[in-house]
Design goal:
The radius of gyration is 21 Å and the shape is globular. The chain is built from 12 helices and 19 strands. It folds into 2 domains: 101 residues, Roll (Urease, subunit C, domain 1); 310 residues, TIM Barrel. The protein is α/β, with parallel strands linked by helices.
């Protein structure tokens, strides 16, 4: 839905005092009180929160190759519904996004979809096999301008390959996003290793499998003088390692998923494969440590790890089920429940962890910008008073594998604007 001028009246910008925000074309024209604009479409936003458009540094769009799970179009429609104006698309597609040609295809599909900006993530190694560096320079120099590289879904477990990748991306300011999972320590793993796994007789996934890789990689990043980003950090021990690394001045950033902020391994007692995810759901102690770390800045951002799967890949016995959950459309609600309503973050903090910081880490030009005159009109309006039960039938995503089905969550995205154009209007896709 394209509009020349839009006047958002009475919104709490970053949770502060109510203000009016006037959008003219692709930019914010003015922010203040008592604004008027002849002929503008007026949105009454009393009680709503206005944030910069959300940025997700970790999304699986599945195209090319697994369009039965998701496409760039359906995935970006889901992103817009969740308040996102930019997403970074992971490389584990078919074929793998390890060449300039594939990342340019994903980039082009995002432009054609038009619901949010899609920035492809390039694979670190050819075919995600961990043996040979992919075309990092060519992907960076392509039309897609790749800055983030990851073999997510697999760990770059070879220390020499990881070092070389860090050295390579340093030349152009890129970052390697590591899926921290020591493969030998997780062979046959089905869930978090602990009391629940022992009682259920399921193969355990120890915290040290994550923590050992993070420890190695922050030391490699320090040695090389490069940037490393930790994907979906999930344990209290990992928090302590990242906190120590930052205290030494190592250039490390980290993300946490909404589901690791809310859900625990106790849910696996149901044997419902919707709770099967990589890394696995951890303990209540881990959840509380992750929340505190996100609040104090040890963990920099929230990233969804939106991982869509077709019905048949989840509606089966636990051992055979695929790992992953969809998350774009519920992320902000989970963060409101776990961080805002607990008093750990205010809405300005949410804007930092879900927009400013991920845009900065991923070099997402035009996103994660202040809500002020002259800035790009990438914005989201949220009604924090809303309470509703999650129904996956309402999702824009092609997949329905949400762990929140039937759960009441707070908050609702009412409007999303991509460069001044409404992609969501009154809670519905435009």
């Amino acid at each position: 839905m394209k509009m020349s001028k839009i006047l958002i009246r009475g919104a709490k910008v970053l949770g502060g005092e109510p203000q009016d925000v006037l959008l003219d074309g692709e930019t914010v024209e003015a922010v203040g009180t008592g604004l008027t604009a002849e002929g503008a479409t007026v949105i009454e936003a009393d009680g709503q929160i206005l944030l910069p458009g959300l940025v997700d540094l970790h999304t699986h769009l599945r195209e090319p190759g697994r369009e039965d799970s998701e496409t760039v179009l359906t995935g970006t429609r889901a992103a817009a519904s969740g308040g996102y104006t930019a997403v970074f698309a992971m490389a584990n597609t078919h074929p793998v996004a390890d060449t300039a040609g594939v990342v340019e295809q994903v980039y082009r599909l995002g432009k054609e979809a038009g619901y949010c900006d899609v920035q492809p993530i390039g694979a670190v190694t050819v075919g995600l096999e961990g043996k040979k560096l992919a075309e990092l320079g060519a992907m960076h120099d392509s039309a897609a301008g790749v800055t983030v590289f990851s073999d997510d879904g697999k760990c770059v477990d070879d220390a020499v390959i990881m070092r070389r990748a860090l050295e390579y991306v340093k030349a152009f300011g890129g970052v390697v996003a590591q899926h921290a999972q020591e493969p030998r320590l997780t062979e046959g793993a089905q869930m978090n290793e602990g009391v629940v796994s022992a009682e259920l007789g399921l193969g355990g996934w120890p915290a040290v499998a994550e923590e050992s890789i993070i420890a190695r990689d922050v030391l490699l990043a320090e040695h090389v003088g490069s940037r490393v980003h930790i994907c979906h950090l999930s344990t209290a021990g990992s928090v302590e390692i990242v906190r120590w690394a930052k205290s030494r001045g190592i250039d490390v950033t980290a993300e946490v998923t909404p589901h690791h902020l809310l859900l625990t391994d106790e849910l696996v007692r149901t044997y419902d494969p919707v709770y099967k995810v990589n890394p696995p759901l951890r303990t209540e102690r881990d959840v509380l440590a992750l929340r505190e770390a996100l609040a104090d800045g040890t963990i920099d951002i929230v990233a969804t790890d939106h991982a869509p799967h077709p019905h048949e890949d989840k509606d089966c016995e636990w051992a055979a089920a695929a790992m992953g959950m969809v998350g774009l459309e519920t992320a902000l609600s989970v963060v409101q429940q776990t961080m805002v309503e607990t008093g750990l973050l205010d809405w300005a903090g949410v804007a930092d962890r879900m927009s400013f910081a991920p845009a900065r880490i991923g070099r997402a030009t035009g996103h994660g910008r202040p809500v002020s005159a002259g800035e790009p009109a990438n914005l989201v309006l949220v009604d924090p008073a809303y309470r509703g039960t999650v129904d996956p039938a309402d999702f824009a995503s092609r997949s329905r594998n949400t762990p929140y089905e039937g759960r009441e969550l707070p908050g609702r995205v009412t409007h999303t604007f991509l460069r001044g154009r409404a992609t969501v209007m009154d809670g519905k896709l435009a």
